[in-house]
Design goal:
Cofactor: Mn(2+)
Helix content: 25-40%
Organism: Cricetulus griseus (Chinese hamster)
Distance between the termini: 105 Å
Family: In the C-terminal section; belongs to the glycosyltransferase 49 family. In the N-terminal section; belongs to the glycosyltransferase 8 family.
Radius of gyration: 32 Å
Number of helices: 24
Shape: elongated
Strand content: 15-25%
Subcellular location: Golgi apparatus membrane
Number of strands: 23
Keywords: Glycoprotein, Glycosyltransferase, Golgi apparatus, Manganese, Membrane, Metal-binding, Multifunctional enzyme, Signal-anchor, Transferase, Transmembrane, Transmembrane helix
């Protein structure tokens, strides 16, 4: 039986619990209210996008996106943005890219080789837009490019009614169709959709004498914009923004936040034009951001905007979470985004259908299936991955051309010390490795100081190393009249760059004389080598057994025609004859024949190229003072497979025979000597 005082105690506990629940309710209600940045100004307009439940567009409707992109770094940013778009999208996309020449060169190559279905790309020349906005002084780090969104209604096709405009530094975490659906919420007068600015910038109280451009309340951020283009044109947008900008520039002298200042000044005078978007569609991560008031949980996030000059280094409450989300797309394998949109009309990129047919004809049971499949692989290519300063035009200049993978990255610093001239290097990397490479270069005093080295990323795909495809990418991007076709594990003589340029001039190479200048190759088995500064020092090391002629003990026929005995005494360049399996490292004009891409993995990739040079009547001239030394390293996976697998060697032999058949078709009877030499070489083996 309960004591008489117990019901009174229970009543007190119950009352306390009710009070706690009531306090919790008010706290939760307050937290929900904090999810809007300025509830008194826009009220429910800044609620979570999920609460609006927009009607999505039909799944095959084409969605239009406009992006301004200039330079090397911005080109990398836009690729990460596009990855996030493609990951979530369910609709075809038409990307309208306003670019400078650098970005267009990079992105044209990338999208052509990416071959993503249901994506259309159109480029617009940023140079043509500069006169339209160059009269506006701008303090923002984006320069003139930061003002170009103002003139998009003038340059985009008149047939285009609506477009989403994005900064390159945004990352999507939802389907862009949900954002497109918000056009349906515009009133008849609204022409632009924007998210409220998530800082106090436009309130004008950040520091003494801080004078921002006029804005409605906190103003709006233009990292994500919905533009109703035909309505904008009907309102006289061009005349409107120019008139207001000129008025404000009389007292403010320049924009601080580029186009955003002008958009806000227009909206201040014409608030009926703006449709405020839910804040989760532009979560802004600047230093003084108030973005955390916008979202309650990760599921609310739609678009993350790195709108600080510090980008990923910005510090705020949830910066680590946002960084991890962004890094997910940085390292995400782009080839996985080559997904067709089922149920939509065929929207394959150029060449994709023929490629699919060729792949379908392959026999997976055929012993050389891997080789056939690798030959057909279309690798994504990102040329000039890092900022690059092209060399000034010089008639006898030489670019070192080579290729490498992640396991040879440590060779780069030594190579830069040995070769002071321009280089064009193709790197075979995964998306994640490309980011590691970027960090490696940025933190290396040697590599970060060299702006004349062009790095081109060829993204990994398939089991075999596409060595000749890599060489062709690097060769195609060389900008000097001549190229030194080398390998990454060779260090050239310190004086070789200057010596090659002088030799080209002295030998009067050019259109009148087709020649391949042979650079004799040597090797050391020591990981530490006192590198010779001259031919005399090299010969001393050779005689002492510290150096050897390259591959003399494994593949002597590869370099024997160079005639090292003659080179020891030579004072002038001398002519040598082509011989079977000859594969020297040579200096040739930039427009030389390309490498045969059928040779993947290990074996005969350089041999076939030298045959092609000989077939086109290039003279082989050995340079008497030139040399390059191979450094030891662990064997590659492909050479290990070559040594251990009879099937691998059989497939290489098949490729050789097919190569000779193609030679016969192209050169007729002149190609007979190569087939004869091959047969003699096989009989000796």
């Amino acid at each position: 039986m309960l004591p008489r005082g117990r019901p009174r105690a229970l009543g007190a506990v119950t009352l306390l619990l009710l009070l706690l629940l009531l306090v919790g309710f008010f706290l939760f209600d307050g937290l929900r209210a904090a999810a809007t940045l300025d509830g008194d100004l826009y009220g429910s307009r800044n609620r979570s996008a999920a609460s609006l439940q927009p009607l999505l567009p039909p799944k095959c409707e084409l969605l239009h996106v406009a992006i301004v992109c200039a330079g090397y770094n911005s080109s990398r940013e836009v690729i990460t943005l596009v990855k996030s778009l493609l990951f979530y999208r369910k609709n075809p996309l038409h990307l309208h890219l306003v670019t400078d020449a650098i970005a267009r060169n990079i992105l044209e190559t990338l999208f052509r080789t990416w071959m993503v279905p249901a994506v259309v790309i159109r480029f617009y020349d940023a140079e043509e837009l500069k006169p339209l906005i160059s009269w506006i002084p701008n303090k923002h780090y984006s320069g003139l490019y930061g003002l170009m969104k103002l003139v998009l209604p003038s340059i985009l096709p008149l047939s285009l009614a609506r477009v989403i405009v994005l900064d390159t530094d945004v990352t999507f975490s939802s389907d862009i169709a949900e954002l497109w659906a918000l056009f349906a919420h515009f009133s008849d007068k609204q022409v632009v959709g924007l998210v409220e600015n998530q800082s106090d910038w436009y309130l004008g109280n950040l520091w003494k004498n801080h004078r921002p451009w006029p804005a409605l309340g906190r103003g709006f951020n233009t990292g994500v914009i919905l533009l109703w283009l035909d309505r904008l044109r009907q309102t006289g947008w061009e005349q409107m923004w120019k008139l207001i900008a000129k008025q404000e520039l009389l007292t403010l002298m320049a924009t601080s936040l580029a186009d955003q200042d002008v958009f806000n000044a227009v909206i201040k005078e014409h608030p009926e034009l703006v449709h405020p978007l839910p804040c989760v569609w532009n979560v802004q991560l600047s230093d003084h951001t108030l973005a955390e008031r916008c979202y309650l949980e990760a599921a609310d996030l739609k678009v993350i905007h790195w709108n600080s000059p510090k980008k990923l280094r910005v510090k705020n409450k949830h910066a680590e979470f946002f960084r991890n989300l962004h890094l997910t797309f940085l390292g995400y394998d782009g080839k996985l985004l080559r997904r067709e949109l089922f149920g939509c009309p065929n929207q394959l990129p150029p060449g994709a259908e023929q490629l699919q047919q060729a792949l379908a004809q392959l026999d997976e049971e055929e012993p050389c299936f891997e080789f056939r499949q690798q030959q057909l692989s279309v690798h994504r290519v990102h040329i000039t991955f890092l900022p690059h300063q092209p060399p000034p035009p010089r008639p006898h200049d030489v670019t070192l051309v080579a290729q490498l993978s992640m396991d040879r990255l440590q060779m780069l610093e030594a190579l830069c010390r040995h070769w002071p001239g321009p280089m064009s290097l193709a790197l075979y990397l995964t998306d994640a490795e490309a980011q590691q490479f970027l960090h490696f270069v940025e933190t290396s005093p040697v590599l970060s100081a060299r702006k004349d080295v062009a790095y081109h990323i060829v993204y990994r795909e398939g089991p075999l190393y596409p060595v000749n495809q890599l060489r062709n990418v690097a060769l195609a991007q060389a900008l000097t009249p001549y190229v030194f076709l080398s390998d990454i594990d060779f260090l050239p003589a310190y004086s070789l760059y200057d010596y090659l340029r002088a030799s080209i001039e002295q030998l009067e190479l050019g259109s009148q004389r087709k020649a391949a200048l042979v650079v004799p190759a040597f090797e050391t088995l020591h990981y530490r080598l006192s590198f010779p500064n001259s031919k005399a020092e090299l010969l001393t090391l050779l005689d002492a057994g510290s150096l050897y002629t390259f591959r003399y003990h494994e593949w002597p026929q590869g370099h024997a025609p160079t005639d090292y005995a003659r080179w020891r005494e030579a004072k002038a360049p001398y002519h040598v004859q082509w011989a079977a399996d000859y594969e020297p490292y040579v200096v040739v004009p930039r427009d030389c024949p390309r490498y045969d891409p059928r040779f993947v993995g290990f074996g005969w990739n350089k041999v076939a190229h030298i045959i092609e040079l000989d077939a086109q009547e290039y003279e082989l001239l050995v340079l008497p003072e030139a040399f390059s030394i191979h450094l030891p390293h662990a064997p590659s996976l492909d050479i290990s497979r070559f040594r251990s697998s009879p099937t691998y060697r059989h497939c290489l032999q098949t490729l050789k025979e097919e190569f000779h058949q193609d030679l016969s078709r192209r050169y007729g009877a002149a190609a007979l000597k190569y087939l004869t030499a091959l047969q003699q070489s096989q009989s000796r083996a």
